[in-house]
Amino acid sequence: MAEGLQTVDFGVIAQEVGVANPWALFDAYLGTGAQACTDATVPAWQERLGGADVFTEGHCWVMMESLRVD
Q: Is 51 exposed, middle or buried (0-12, 13-18, 19+ CB in 10 A)?
């Protein structure tokens, strides 16, 4: 997840979503970070861990929040 946070460009997200609604902008930023983590994690675990394709994004989201807050 740390890699996902480093690779997601907030400026690019802001250009795509706009800045009029900061909640939508931040949601898009966090969602993009969680998706980047998911895309990096699922291929390595999908065949070895049941439900990896279903639950990884949620786990990435929680880990991202932990990294951001701590």
A: exposed
